Amino acid sequence: MSQPDQIAPRTGAPTVNAADARRIAFAAFVGTALEWYDYFLFGMAAALVFDRLFFTDLDPNAGLMAALATFGVGFAARPIGALVFGYVGDRYGRRPALLTTIVMIGCATGLIGLLPDYLSIGLAAPILLAVLRLLQGLAVGGEWGGAITIAIEHAPERQRARYAALVQVGSPVGTLVSSAVFSAVLLLPSADFDAWGWRIPFLAAFPLLGIALYIRLKVEESPVFQELVELEDRAKVPALALFREAGGRLLVAVAAALLGVGGFYMMTTFVVSYASSVLEVDRQVVVNATLVAAVFQIAVTLVAGRVAERFGPGRMTVIGAVATGAAAFPLFWLIDTAEPWAITVAVTTGICLITLAYAVTGTLLADLFPPRLRYSGVSLGYNLAGAFSGFLPLIATALLVVDDGASWPAVLVLIGICAVTALGGAAGERIRVKDARNEG
Q: Does 335 score more than 70 pLDDT?
């Protein structure tokens, strides 16, 4: 892998300090929590309601597959969003890119709550749903990479992993809030849930957007980007420079990020669908399991960020991948019992193991790219992994027919993801690039 080794550390030294780092990381966290609230909400709805309301001309199995395919469409759009907002973030600043992405995803999610269903407007309903999902995907393609970039560029070098982990806490918080809201509306009578109840979590995105935007507007531009402007060291077309100068690093980034995204959706979206459709478990049981898992994930994320400061994010990625792969079959044996307690234990344990890798994904990916290409590199690496991961619930669901609904083909998919991420973490630890900076 000669191409990645050609990148040398920068000699510039922008000033950063812990006080600014905490404030910026919190602002990044708030926006990311909204982002994942919106995105996870769609995953829940795709598994539980969209098949009935937006694809009603199809039989139940085909409707579920179509709903999950729509869920995957958002992931396919994410690399495009990474290219677009990576260009903005590396050429014009991290801040304007982040303000745009959060507005896009908040508005797209709120509008889903206003969509008429298939019985009201026919084929236009699933088409509009897919369009809004595409807009979500475009925005998320630039949001996470930008949030990680601006957080670590405000942080002292030795403490970058903890502040990047704080941004990652946005994922379980988003899951927790979206699952809690969905659990609440699932308590409604089925007719009321289908008629209007499912819309409430989506409409809540509008006021949440107002809060997040207010906080984000107070964020200053990254000192690292300001230095790039002063030195006139910005790539004219960041994506082209990324492929030319750091193509090998991009492949490592995709591999390292795969488990954190794909494994998570295997343990949430796929398990919700599998347990409710194949095992005929009450859907409320599985949604509640994700609530419990999200609480534990918050603690694991923060701890893993601190541990990574000592052992390195690449090594932590390998540990998470190996542990998840080793536990994959036992976890699904528990799920296959269809017992509520066993499903809760399995989902919680699986997500916590995956989080050992996910918590440090931001730090590892940021360390793979020099500042002039960082927004594009982090965003594209993560979202290329996401583009594939978004279809994993669909692939795993399709594989259930191999052995009359048995879960082992899906488990093999999860183990394969773990193997790829273990290789990416090991390679990433060897080729990390550190910025030079003054720590005040």
A: yes
